[in-house]
Amino acid sequence: MSALVRQETVLADDTRLRDRLVFGDEDAFSELYERFSALVYTVAVRVTRDERAAEDVAQEVFLSVWQRPLAFDPAKGSLRGWLAMLAHRRAVDLVRREETHRRSTQDGKLSAEALSRGDPVGDQVEDADATRRLRLALGTLPEHLHTVISLAYLQGRTYREVAAELGLPEGTAKSRLREGLRRLTVALSGNHAHGPEAQ
Predict the structure, then answer these.
(1) Which intervals hold domain RNA polymerase sigma-70 region (predicted)?
(2) Cβ atoms 195, 67 nearer than 8 A
(3) Which has the closest alpha carbon to 130: 142, 122, 140, 119?
């Protein structure tokens, strides 16, 4: 198979996966996570040099894709490349936010350097609010769902690894991940002006 044919096959697969996500297909989300969670986490940890921060970035990336799958345009490249770019941007934003916060805490105000670079303070506040809402939403999950979501999305494990660690059948781990994701989406949508109304 030529490189061009392989590339066309990958883009066709990426498009189908994106289209399934648009229709809220939870199996498609599980497939997305299985294929790319290690990549997203690795990119994030290389930038942040902090496992917990990388876990936060990975969680934000996957929830963002679940909520807005049409942001991915197969005409502009592969899903793998897009997710790596998204993880890199989110990680860089997180590092910048933390650095700005450190400086502003030390100085009692935003640093002049951050302001001269044109760092959007409003975006920093909005991103911090999104992370806060995400943590609050996680806190609303029952313990059995919180545990599997934390292992999968915060610690970068596959659903098979989650199942093995918790002594669960793989199907149970997968269904708990789906239910946890569904509840997170509802909780976040209910607390976000741009999301659909929670039922």
Answers:
(1) 32-98
(2) yes
(3) 122
pLDDT of residue 79: 93
- The two tokens of residue 44 are 């994030």
* 3-state class (DSSP) for residue 141: coil
The number of beta carbons lying within 10 Å of the beta carbon of residue 79 is 20
Residue 153 DSSP SS3: helix
110 to each of 92, 102, 104, 125, how far by Cα in Å?
18, 9, 4, 12
With beta carbons less than 8 A apart as the criterion, state whether 179 and 145 touch: yes
Using one digit for the tens of pLDDT, what is the confidence trace for 61-118? 998 898 888 999 888 889 999 999 999 999 998 888 777 766 655 554 444 444 445 4
CA distance 45 to 103: 22
1-86 has which fold? Answer: Rna Polymerase Sigma Factor; Chain: A (1.10.1740)
**Residue 141, phi-psi category: left (phi > 0), alpha (psi -120 to 50), beta (remainder):** beta
CA distance 50 to 1: 40
**Residue 82 structure tokens:** 């897009």
Rounded to whole angstroms, what are the CA distances from 138 to 12, 122, 127, 131, 185? 34, 24, 17, 11, 10
Q: Closest Cα partner for 153 from 129, 185, 123, 128?
A: 185
Residues 6+ apart with CB under 8 A from 36: 79, 80, 83
